[in-house]
């Protein structure tokens, strides 16, 4: 949006003020304030180098996991499946229920502290190598380059008018983007609906409304974010770009430009013509670092929140330095203190072990240890004891006191078991029925029981007892819960 600023003498919006002495050619000059700058199309140049190879390795590994996990079988079922309908989360040999939400909370805490730690050590390394936005943008750009050509060819293609060549290239590109986005949506939904059942349903047009919605939604989001919006997501939509500076300090590894070495920058031909005694910087102002940047920034202007830390500019600058026979590292991973004070590599590494890093590492280590140990000792059996409120403690034959309970039992194991029920806390407690209960794999069962105490056992009123379950075929699988046994007054 452009807004014209009203000048003195202007009566109302849209009316031109009278001519003034400052007018040129009889026309009044206006100052224009742009409330929103139009987006400039970015055409990242393809670059080869060690960081580009590392980035593509991350792309390959993350997508191998994302697309491959739904197709792995485990115990005759999908290995990773979040079955919302039956409220069961399958993670290989682990079956989680809604009662296991604490592990999800612990996993989120681990992810959060990992992000804090990685950012404090190496800046936006997550954004540059493993963020889904970065990963899919790289894939979509690779498709674009294969169909439309290199950076110069893509720029020429966009500038020229519509022709058969432009039409088929653009159509092929968007069809390829759409196919990849659709398969991404199908793979995403495949984590919630068994993917081997999902594909036949798609083929027979028998897809459910929610499955259809989420395939379309996730596919459209992938197509729009990676194909069209690209750097706009990193610049304006991602909140991480805004609060990342709170995790940085002057000893955090970031992409830096060595201005002391690079300035004054000038083309190599001009530097060769300089008078003897004058010194030009190593930067030849080739702008390769800008051309390869996926967000279109100039790293030579200093640290910017739009920098995602992908190190494409490092690869580009190193390749230029190799060609002009200058040392690598004009643009490199370093710290602000290291660039200003000329720290060696060993000094940079030593200063990485500062209090913030040690605290993050200690907290993360403790949380991971607690998380792993709790999963290791987790009992695949859950028990909830519910008193039958319609039947309080009562006296039956021979003065025996009886209380009625309902047991909600969940066998979270993928094997069936026979469980024996017992009660303790008062001498002589018995449970009816006394026979073990049979439970299939991952089954939930409501079991009514009667707990009886002999005449004279316990105190009048409330007595604390425990009701326990133990697997007959695996005695280590056992669990118990507190309950209240009521003894009525005579």
Automatic annotation (TrEMBL):
Residues 1-27 are annotated as: Disordered. Residues 1-15 have a biased composition (Basic and acidic residues). InterPro entries: 4Fe4S_Fe-S-bd, 4Fe4S_Fe_S_CS, Cyt_c_oxidase_cbb3_FixG, Electron_Trans/Redox, FixG_C, Helical_ferredxn, Ig-like_fold. SUPFAM superfamilies: 4Fe-4S ferredoxins (SSF54862). Signal peptide: none annotated. Keywords: 4Fe-4S, Electron transport, Iron, Iron-sulfur, Membrane, Metal-binding, Transmembrane, Transmembrane helix, Transport. The chain crosses the membrane at residues 54-72, 101-122, 175-192, 212-229, 357-377. Residues 274-302 form the 4Fe-4S ferredoxin-type domain. NCBIfam families: ccoG_rdxA_fixG. This is Cytochrome c oxidase accessory protein FixG. It comes from Herbaspirillum frisingense.
């Amino acid at each position: 949006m452009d807004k014209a600023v009203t000048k003195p003498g202007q009566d109302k919006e849209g009316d031109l003020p009278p001519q003034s002495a400052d007018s040129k050619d009889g026309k009044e000059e206006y100052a224009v304030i742009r409330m929103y700058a139009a987006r400039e199309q970015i055409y990242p140049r393809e670059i080869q180098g060690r960081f580009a190879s590392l980035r593509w390795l991350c792309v390959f590994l993350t997508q191998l996991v994302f697309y491959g996990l739904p197709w792995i079988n485990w115990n005759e079922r999908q290995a990773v499946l979040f079955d919302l309908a039956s409220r069961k989360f399958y993670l290989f040999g682990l079956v989680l229920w809604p009662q296991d939400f604490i592990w999800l909370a612990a996993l989120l805490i681990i992810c959060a502290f990992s992000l804090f730690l990685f950012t404090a050590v190496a800046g936006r390394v997550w954004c540059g190598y493993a963020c889904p936005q970065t990963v899919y943008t790289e894939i979509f750009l690779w498709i674009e380059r294969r169909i439309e050509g290199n950076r110069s060819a893509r720029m020429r293609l966009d500038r020229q008018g519509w022709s058969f060549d432009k039409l088929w290239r653009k159509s092929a590109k968007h069809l390829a983007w759409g196919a990849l986005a659709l398969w991404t949506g199908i793979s995403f939904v495949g984590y919630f609906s068994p993917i081997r059942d999902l594909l036949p349903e798609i083929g027979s047009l028998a897809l459910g409304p929610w499955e259809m919605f989420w395939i379309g939604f996730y596919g459209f989001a992938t197509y729009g974010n990676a194909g069209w919006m690209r750097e706009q997501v990193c610049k304006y939509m991602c909140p991480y770009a805004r609060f990342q500076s709170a995790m940085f300090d002057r000893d955090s590894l970031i992409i830096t430009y060595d201005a002391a070495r690079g300035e004054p920058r000038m083309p190599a031909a001009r530097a060769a013509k300089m008078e003897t005694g004058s010194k030009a910087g190593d930067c030849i102002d080739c702008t390769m670092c800008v051309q390869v940047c996926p967000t279109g920034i100039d790293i030579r202007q200093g640290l910017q929140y739009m920098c995602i830390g992908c190190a494409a500019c490092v690869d580009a600058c190193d390749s230029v330095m190799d060609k002009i026979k200058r040392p690598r590292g004009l643009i490199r991973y370093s710290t602000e203190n290291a660039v200003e004070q000329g720290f060696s590599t060993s000094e940079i590494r030593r200063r990485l072990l500062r209090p913030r890093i040690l605290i993050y590492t200690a907290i993360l280590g403790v949380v991971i240890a607690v998380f792993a140990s709790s999963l290791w000792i987790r009992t695949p059996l859950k028990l909830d004891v519910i008193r039958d409120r319609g039947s309080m403690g009562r006296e039956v034959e021979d003065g025996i006191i009886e209380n009625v309970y309902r047991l909600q039992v969940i066998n979270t194991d993928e094997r069936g078991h026979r469980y024996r029920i017992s009660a303790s806390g008062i001498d002589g407690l018995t449970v009816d029925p006394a026979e073990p209960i049979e439970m299939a794999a991952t089954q939930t069962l409501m079991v009514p029981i009667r707990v009886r105490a002999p005449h004279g056992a316990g105190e009048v009123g409330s007595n604390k007892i425990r009701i326990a379950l133990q697997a007959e075929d695996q005695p280590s699988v056992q669990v118990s819960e507190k309950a209240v046994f009521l003894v009525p007054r005579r």
